[in-house]
């Protein structure tokens, strides 16, 4: 339901651009009697950009609206995306920092230098300051115009055949990594062999480890193969640059161009907060509940050796005068962030798997709820929840500690199943699996946990959110109507039913 997919990828950008033609010019939205907003088409494979999209509308007071285009593939098309914006096929695009070195722009290398920006707190400091504004000017060399830099998740060492703590653990290892000149140089310097990987659920077989973010280790279910995550090491963040086509931006007023830049700056804090929350709630908590991967910490001595081992990478980076200056300024900003950095370290302490009842509960039976997109929005759904798989004909079945639900409409049909527990007036759903079809290819993942307050009156089951818990809005847009006292899985969608194992444990 409410999955934050932090990288939806761009591997098929070239094919998509051919299919979508030249419709990248700034356009006016139709409908309504008031002033029509100017619509900007923006390509982004990153779901976490929703706060930026919302900020554009708020800062511009409705004069600007972002129409986000995205695709689910790997990161290999990032260079194609830069060219697509330059050539005018899109008004805007969000391009990860790691892609720019390969496009001849080295101005962002300091942001992804190994162990330099090593916490969300420091990343926010850097992006809130004037360093980011200075770096941004470099994109002009690629024929595009700068808008802003958005924060990204922290990438950690994930061990598959070995723990990745000190530099000695990297020697001879095949490490899957997103395409990045700086990351590849770092891994080779540590004696590892970088193996390009798009991730997003792609196979990591044959690798000794990967560099990846905690949330997507959970969403991609890489904990099936992975053995450990080095909790107190952040190799580098994955920030992204918002750029625009110069000609299309000139069609806007000066105030509107300023609104775009202010929106990017405004979104830094809210995006950082949402990413940290998602990492904790949907990443760390899910991984701890599954119990298949261990969070390991390096010792102070191992971390010191790791920093020393990447000195040659810094010598290479510091050959560029601008990068050298950025690195020095980032180092100065690190003072005072240690406490915040330590507070961000994920841990399974105090967390464990829920137990589900085997006896019949008072909720057992089948339920139905039908909602529309407008009703979902009116219920207060967040931007990343307003997706086709989150409205339509919902069916929900509870049976002796197991549940399954389906959602079906003309654009999507998805299913999920798992176990549930009831404690007083709190209902907890722990997902065992999910699938189906939807425009953004989202599906519920093993280990996700949703918590709701519940009440029942006659044939109506009413759910509501619980403060501090993940309580997806699509579940409580309306009351659910009981359509059978018998937990009949035949009442779920026939178009996309869950597997038969949904109610057998």
From TrEMBL:
Pfam families: DctP (PF03480)
Region Disordered, residue ranges: 340-365
Matching InterPro entries: DctP_fam, TRAP_DctP_sf
Biological process annotations from GO: transmembrane transport
Keywords noted in UniProt: Signal
Keyword Lipid biosynthesis on entry: no
Cross-referenced PANTHER family: PTHR33376, SIALIC ACID-BINDING PERIPLASMIC PROTEIN SIAP
Name this protein carries in UniProt: Uncharacterized protein
Organism: Streptomyces albiflavescens
Lineage start: Bacteria, Bacillati, Actinomycetota, Actinomycetes, Kitasatosporales
